[in-house]
Amino acid sequence: MLETTVVDIELHAARAGWDQPAKLFALVDTAELAEQEPALAQRLGLASATIAPGSLTPIEQEALGDGSLDEILAQIAWPPEVLGAALVHEVLILPPSAEEARPEHADPLTWASEHAQRREVRLAVGVLRDGSRASALRVRAAQADPTALDDVLVGGDLAPNLADALLETLT
Predict the structure, then answer these.
(1) Residues near 73 by beta carbon (within 8 Å), at least 6 away in sequence
(2) Where are the chain's structural domains?
């Protein structure tokens, strides 16, 4: 269920387009949410008979503040009813060979943003309290359908450091 939820979160972000700020989501049990918030469940079209066991509902949180993502995540703690957390974040990636060519005193972010081989990607990473992880990655492409699922790479550990930081918010 986590992988499906993370892909759904990435698709939600894709509909908003590129150049969006990072977004944080609490992951809650859908059946519990429907039971505790029946009006919300009705608005979302959730009938208890149609909720698959173990289904997760992402709840988008308020905008993250300014500062480094590591520092922001280090200040977050979730209540016990939150089963997991997910984050959507746009980043630049470079081929491994590019790092060796970085000038010693160059600002890494500036250098990467100007590098000819840079790729812009959107990462959606989700974790559960039991340590489960899922990731979805979409590369920004000029001619691609921004919401095509064929363009999404899915894996358990595409961004291990980000998954670790999210997992820390749950402990």
Answers:
(1) 87, 165, 166, 168, 169
(2) 2-168
Terminal Cα distance for the chain, rounded: 21
| Helix intervals (H) in the chain | 2-16, 30-36, 38-43, 69-74, 96-100, 108-114, 160-168
pLDDT tens-digit readout, 113-129:
777 777 889 999 999 99
Rg value, the chain, Cα? 18
Q: Which residue has the tokens 């892909």?
A: 7
Q: Are strands 119-128 and 133-139 parallel, antiparallel or unpaired?
A: antiparallel
pTM: 0.85
Q: Give the total residue count for the chain.
A: 171
- Give buried/exposed letters for 126-136 (b at 16+ CB in 10 A, else e): bbbeeebbbbb
- The amino acid at residue 42 is Q
Alpha-carbon distance of 169 to 171, in angstroms, equals 6
Let me know: does 137 contact 153? Beta carbons within 8 Å.
yes
pLDDT digits (tens, 9 = 90+) for 20-37: 999 999 999 988 888 888
